[in-house]
Amino acid sequence: MKTLVLTDNVIIYEGLKKIFDDYNYDHVDFAHSHIKSDIWSHEDFRGFDKAINVKQDQEFLINNYNLIISGHCKQFFPKKLVNQIRCINIHPGYNPINRGWYPQVFAIVNDLPIGATIHEMDEKLDHGPIITRAMIEKHEEDTSLEIYTRVINEELKLFKENFKEIISNTYKTITIAGENSHFFDKEDFKNLSEIDLDKKVSFREALDFLRAMTHGDYKNAYFIDKKGDKVFVSIKLNKENG
Ligand code: 0FX
């Protein structure tokens, strides 16, 4: 029985691959989802033969693997799969505070802490016993991209530090009590994107919103101009001596 790493994220794939190589551990397969993403054109993958549909392929997975690691796999793992094999999720948020989609975006907008979590999966999304988690810093001049980059580095650091325990199933999990669980999905992000030009907000709220919606070249926040066209908005912040 082997380990399977399922990932749809190029940076996470390359980071995890390096960690497995550094530990000289080759009892592992890497695959991506059947859902098309940038990783399909990565030189290490040759298209559809490495594509997994967790719902349709669950018997194959159960019969061939004893550990599945989701490193930003864009599929919801079915009940039977998470109950029959150990499935672990590497999540770009500090759980249970940042469950769901694009956690750093909602952490900026809602002034929440942010970090990374590795947890065993259960039947709920981004939920289950926590193996390890860590918060990262978040500054007033950060956009989504700066925080995301820090989160990804933390996810890989946590995975590397806990590699042996994760592979050999010798960690102790933590159950968190008394922390609020926040959950945001794709639809929440979409709903955030259109700017109502007549809405009254403070400068702080406006800046926080634009920082949250600024992520490199992505066209996220927009308003509709008088001609009915979308105008995309992002922000640039420069800290003195930064
Ligand atoms: O792979 P990933 O970093 O993570 C997402 C979810 O946030 C995560 O909770 C889930 N477990 C995983 C399977 O999928 O997402 P991404 O590579 O699509 O996007 C990375 C960041 O880029 C995102 O946090 C915000 C930014 N982004 C992305 C898109 C596609 C935007 O700002 N706008 C966009 O349209």
Automatic annotation (TrEMBL):
InterPro entries: Formyl_transf_N, Formyl_transf_N_sf, N_formyltrans_C. Residues 55-159 form the Formyl transferase N-terminal domain. Keywords: Transferase. Residues 188-239 form the N-formyltransferase dimerization C-terminal domain. The keyword GTP-binding does not apply. NCBIfam families: PRK07579.1 (NF005755). This is Formyl transferase domain protein. It comes from Marivirga tractuosa (strain ATCC 23168 / DSM 4126 / NBRC 15989 / NCIMB 1408 / VKM B-1430 / H-43) (Microscilla tractuosa). One of its GO terms (cellular component) is cytosol. One of its GO terms (molecular function) is methionyl-tRNA formyltransferase activity. The keyword Cell wall biogenesis/degradation does not apply. Pfam families: Formyl_trans_N, N_formyltrans_C.
